[in-house]
Each structure stands twice: as structure tokens, then as C-alpha cells.
Design a protein that fits this description.
alpha/beta, seven-stranded mixed beta sheet, 4 helices, 28% strand
């Protein structure tokens, strides 16, 4: 399958969330979004946009200490933060695989900490903070289903 990449430069938190919201329109049950980027890059802001795009009404916060937060929208949303996990074994021990292949959308912050757990067909979102405060967002999806971003 062909890999598609899209680059966006977001000038504000609203634009970062907006990119997530647009991506959410193309997600379906079983979709996995693997977020990557340093501290303060905007991963949670992007995740809030995905949640908004999925119709989640609750306030979405970083699940750093809870590791997994669940939200209801047009599809269930599983917001996972792998920062405190020691790797794939920890993820497996909390039942992570069940979330990835369920009836909802899984969005994983710090996904690079779980290299064996992220499915090959995951949408990979890399967010980098630029010197001027803007965010460079690269969205990599498999195939053409994300070509309208």
C-alpha cells in the first residue's frame, strides 16, 4: 500500500487542534493514531482536536498519570499516554492491545515508547515545536484515505 504524508504548520493551539479535528473525520473503529513529539510539542492539543472531531463533549486532559482515559463520542476514544510506561510489556500488562483493536479510536501519546505495539497501519503524527512557537505537524497515513487533509 502507498504511504501518504501531509505537512501542516500550525501557528496556534487552535490550529493544532484543528488539524486533529480534520483527521478525526477520516478515522473509524479500530483506527490508531500514534503521536510523537517532545515535551510541549502539542500532542495533547492535537488529541483534543481528534476528540472534538469525534464528538466528545467532555474536557480532554493529558492521561499522563492515569495512562488511559476513555471518552464517548461517535466512536469511543481511548487516549493513551505511554510516557510512564517502560515499553511494550507494560502496555500489554495494562491490556493495551485490547484498546487498539476494539470498537473505538486509540490515540497514543509518546507512541515511540511502544515500538512493537503500534500496528503497521497506524496513522503516525509527528509534531515538532519550531523556534518561532509554531508547530510543524507531519501526518503519515497508509493509502489514500487521508489524502483530503
Amino acid at each position: 500500500m502507498e504511504t501518504s504524508r501531509f505537512n501542516i504548520v500550525a501557528a496556534s493551539p487552535e490550529e493544532t487542534a484543528g488539524a486533529g479535528e480534520k483527521l478525526a473525520e477520516r478515522l473509524h473503529a479500530g483506527s490508531v493514531v500514534a503521536l510523537r513529539g517532545g515535551l510541549g510539542a502539542g500532542k495533547t492539543c492535537f488529541a483534543k482536536g481528534v476528540a472534538r472531531g469525534l464528538g466528545v463533549q467532555e474536557e480532554v486532559t493529558s492521561p499522563t498519570y492515569t495512562i488511559v482515559s476513555e471518552y464517548e463520542g461517535r466512536l469511543p476514544l481511548y487516549h493513551i499516554d505511554a510516557y510512564r510506561l517502560q515499553g511494550d510489556a507494560d502496555f500489554s500488562n495494562i491490556g493495551g492491545e485490547e484498546l487498539l483493536f476494539g470498537a473505538g479510536v486509540s490515540i497514543i501519546e509518546w507512541s515511540e515508547r511502544l515500538p512493537q505495539s503500534i500496528p503497521e497501519d497506524a496513522v503516525v503524527v509527528e509534531i515538532n515545536l519550531l523556534e518561532d512557537g509554531r508547530r510543524a505537524i507531519q501526518i503519515q497515513g497508509i493509502g489514500n484515505e487521508y489524502s483530503c487533509l
